[in-house]
Amino acid sequence: MDGQKNGSNSLYEAIGGADTVSRLVQAFYPKVQADPSIGPLFPEDIDPVMEKQTLFLTQFFGGPPLYSDRYGHPMMRARHLPFPITPERAEAWLSCMKRALAEVGLDQQLQYAVLERLKGPAHHFVNTDE
């Protein structure tokens, strides 16, 4: 998956590249783990998840294809199928991301652009109403 491009600049470059993606993932996962609806879906050892998320978001936002280079095609919907993802859990995930984006201090327009980019996939992963 390639990130959306604005002219010649990717969203990855616009948000500040590797440093910002790393800071975003570091800010995001404590919020996820503390969330009562989605926290239990994640393993106690969150470090491998954070590493994969960093690689994925780098690629997803238009940076180097780090995730694909290491793991092959992301196939994110298939990778999420074992987990019961409801519309409410998708929204909880997005809420955690919104708070993490604010915490890392991204410009409001960039926060909006990142959330808009993530909304489609977050809702695409929904696989149950229960």
UniProtKB/TrEMBL annotation:
CDD domains: TrHb2_Bs-trHb-like_O. Heme binds at H123. InterPro entries: GlbO/GLB3-like, Globin-like_sf, Globin/Proto, Hemoglobin_trunc. SUPFAM superfamilies: Globin-like (SSF46458). It comes from the Bacteria. Keywords: Heme, Iron, Metal-binding, Transport. Belongs to the truncated hemoglobin family. Group II subfamily. This is Globin. It comes from Paenibacillus hemerocallicola.
